[in-house]
Write a structure and sequence with these properties.
Length: 229
Amino acid sequence: MKKLVVVLLVLVALAAVADRVGVRIAQRVVADQIVSRSGLKGAPDVQIAGIPFLTQAIGGQYHDVRVHLTAAELGQPAGTTGDVSLRGVHLPLSDVLAGAVRQVPVDRVDGTATLPYALLSQQLGGDATVSAEGSGLRITRTIQVLGQDVPVTAAGTVTLDGQDLVVQVKQAEAVGVNLPSALVQRAAGLLDFRYRVPALPFGLHVTGLQPGPDGVRVEVAARDVVLAG
């Protein structure tokens, strides 16, 4: 009986090792398939969640494939990042082994993308800065008022209109200059802007957003995606 227990423990240990080794190999394979079929500019960091892995590989369906995307891989400005989960990835093991993968169906994809404040600041140009302030934004820029350069600061809100981020300011004030409030508010209208979220991989669409510490965090999702390149 003791020998049997030892043998079983050894088999369990070997199965666990094989499972983890299989995960590392599969993560490279899945990453290659994702890159070649989603228009990414580089190989992302891919992690296959769920234990045991081998049953997922044999069944040809991965429950949760997590992908971290950098700005370079997205082909977007520096600081842009994405973290998405591909849920229900259909990738038959026989097709992988035969090199016959033509498409990768995915039941659904969801996650977040972060648009850095430096990127949004560039939309206003000049010395503009956009930063987080509570649940909204703080926007500053030097604006010409009556022929005079005036530093203006304002609280702002960011909302979603389709695939556009819409930033609108309120409670603007001139810094170090005494100007009529109505004039400052009219000039602050130059701080309003709209930013079109670039096309995202995996057929993702923007579904929501909120300001975060490093940028505006955009919630994204897609359903019944087929990766085919």
